[in-house]
Structures are given as C-alpha cells and as structure tokens.
C-alpha cells in the first residue's frame, strides 16, 4: 500500500530555543589567590555562549550530519541531545531509546573488567540484565577483543575502548544513535566495520545524528546536513550543498 505523502514522519528529536553557556574561572597564582582572599574579592569568571537559540527537528529514520569548524558548537549540541549536558535555556525532546558514542570510554569504570563494563554500560544505555546477557556474545565478538574481556579496562588502549563502547551501543537496538568523531579513533578495518553497522542502522529506519570532519563520508551517508557557526545554525540542507559551502564552493 502506498504511503500518503501528506503524512509526515514522526519527530525523533526536537530542539526548541536551545541556549548553552559555559563559565570559566580565571586561574591565578598562589600569591594572587591569597591576596584576593584577604581582600574578600569575588572570583573572576568569563561566560561563553556555545549555542545560541538553536531550533531544529529531526524526524524518525533521518541520518543527519552536524557540521562546522572547530568551536562551532556541533559537539556541544550533540551532548545536549544525549543528555550529557543540560541546556541553560530551551528544551530538547527525544523519542525512543537513545544511545551514542560521545567520548571514548564514557560510562566505563576503569577498575572494572571489560565484561563487567559491558553490563554497566548496557544498563546505563537502558538495557535490562536479561537483554545484556542475551547479546553479550555478539557484543564481545563484534568488538574483537575477546582475549581481553576479563582484563580491567584501565589497561585498554583508546582503540580497545572504542571497539567495546561502539559494540555495546549498537547492540542496545537504539531508536536514536549519536556519534561524535569517535570513528576517527581505531584502525581502518574497524572504522569500516563501524560504518557498515551504521549503514545497517540507517537501512533499518533508525535515527542517526553524526558529527564528523570527514566531509566525503557524511555527504555520502547522510540525508541532511546542519551547519553551525559560532553556536548558530546557519544552513540546513541536503549534505552535499552544506559540504560545498564549507569548502567555499558556493
């Protein structure tokens, strides 16, 4: 039966009036710190607005690239969507189970083994113990670190962290999957393996939001590109058009 084109796909992510600020304290020498304490001077801080009134809607099944040069706010936006950061103003709504790779090793406890961290990270991402148990062998096999799974992860390399973290995340069967530059870590065969799995998630109708400096990859993989400059969305279009603008080609 044909789909009625007038019926819009449900929303997966809605960002409404998002503002995110960071405050930085000035670092003084010990002498200056003591002098300020004696004078009862207030702590000096600077405020930086990383995201400024960001509004966007991502629909179920879309694969969207957040693009921009360093300092544009794309990673901060992804962290706000994931819940790692809390907005100072505005609201974010996400429909369904969300999983992602925002930082290598995030959610892993260094003194626990890889096996124990699979259960810990799986629980953080919303899986039940029974779900983790049922998928454990698949998770370990995909990561290709079977011989190290009972070793404490503080001895893991960043590449091993990536393998296990990515494997846990994709086996949660997320509705929304977030990836931030983490595919730049690890060897090339595993990067290809990760991209193949991302394509499988895309083909199965999952919602994907990707931050990457690999413009060729996102242009080919994504349905849409959102360009940020200094915390402001300046372009929202098909990805090849956004990539051309970033490259100064029009």
Q: State the total count of DSSP E strands.
A: 9
Mean pLDDT: 88
* Main sheet specs: 6 strands, mixed
Poorly predicted regions are 1-6
Question: What's the number of helices?
Answer: 8
Query: According to CATH, what is the topology?
Result: Rossmann fold
- How many domains make up the 3D coordinates? 1
What class do helices, strands and sheet pairing give?
Answer: alpha/beta
CATH superfamily: P-loop containing nucleotide triphosphate hydrolases
The arrangement of helices and strands along the chain is EHEEHEEHHHEHEHEEH
Q: What is the alpha-carbon Rg in Å?
A: 21 Å
- Taking the alpha carbons of the first and last residues, their distance comes to 41 Å
What's the CATH architecture name? 3-Layer(aba) Sandwich
User: Spatial order of the strands in the main sheet?
Assistant: 5-6-7-3-8-9
User: Per DSSP, what share of the residues sits in E-state strands of 2 or more residues?
Assistant: 25-35%
- The first-level CATH class is given as Alpha Beta
Shape: globular
Helix content: 25-40%
How are the elements arranged and paired?
Layout (H helix, E strand, L loop, with lengths): L10 E15 L4 H10 L5 E15 L3 E5 L6 H9 L6 E6 L3 E4 L12 H11 L4 H15 L14 H13 L5 E5 L7 H16 L3 E5 L3 H7 L2 E6 L2 E6 L1 H8 L4
Parallel strand pairs: 3-7, 3-8, 5-6, 6-7
Antiparallel strand pairs: 1-2, 1-4, 8-9
Helix pairs in contact: 3-4, 3-5, 4-5
GO molecular function: ABC-type transporter activity; ATP binding; ATP hydrolysis activity
Keywords: ATP-binding, Nucleotide-binding, Transport
Protein name: ABC transporter ATP-binding protein
